[in-house]
């Protein structure tokens, strides 16, 4: 039973990583390169991205944090958690939308309740 729950979570996580990548309109190769730049010395290949998106592999927390910084999606959501953010949640602005010279310094922004 536990194995089934883990596989279901991996499938949800994979779909959300794919959606996050699609939201910034990058192919797997460019996405892997951009995420690697945010991983401080770790290299992520397009094959790792493919395995995660297809639900064959869990993403490490550090990788989810880098994807969050790149895309602006919440780490908890990427990991397969709740779809509903808290009202006072602080998240990163998508690095993909920042000027090129500022890639190394994500800007935290406050997300206000609607």
Fold and architecture overview:
With 114 residues, the chain is mainly alpha-helical. It has one domain (2-84): Orthogonal Bundle (434 Repressor (Amino-terminal Domain)). Helix content is 48%, strand content 5%. The chain has a two-stranded antiparallel sheet with strand order 1-2. Helix 1 (2-23) packs across helix 3, helix 1 runs parallel beside helix 4 and helix 2 (28-37) crosses helix 3. The radius of gyration is 14 Å and the shape is globular.
Tally of extended strands? 2
Walk across the major sheet and give the strand order: 1-2
> The CATH topology, please?
434 Repressor (Amino-terminal Domain)
Structural class: mainly alpha
The chain-level mean pLDDT equals 79
Calculate Rg over CA atoms: 14 Å
User: Sheet bearing the most strands, described?
Assistant: 2 strands, antiparallel
Query: Tell me, what's the shape?
Result: globular
C-alpha end-to-end distance: 39 Å
Strand content range: 5-15%
| Quaternary structure annotation | single chain
| CATH class type | Mainly Alpha
Low-confidence stretches: 85-90, 99-104
């Amino acid at each position: 039973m536990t194995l089934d729950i883990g596989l279901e979570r991996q499938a949800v996580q994979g779909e959300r990583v794919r959606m996050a990548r699609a939201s910034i309109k990058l192919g797997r190769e460019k996405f892997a390169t951009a995420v690697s730049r945010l991983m401080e010395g770790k290299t992520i290949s397009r094959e790792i991205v493919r395995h995660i998106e297809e639900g064959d592999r869990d993403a490490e927390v550090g990788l989810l944090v880098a994807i969050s910084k790149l895309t602006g999606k919440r780490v908890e959501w990427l990991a397969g958690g709740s779809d509903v953010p808290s009202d006072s949640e602080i998240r990163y602005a998508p690095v993909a939308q920042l000027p090129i010279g500022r890639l190394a310094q994500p800007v935290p922004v406050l997300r206000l309740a609607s």
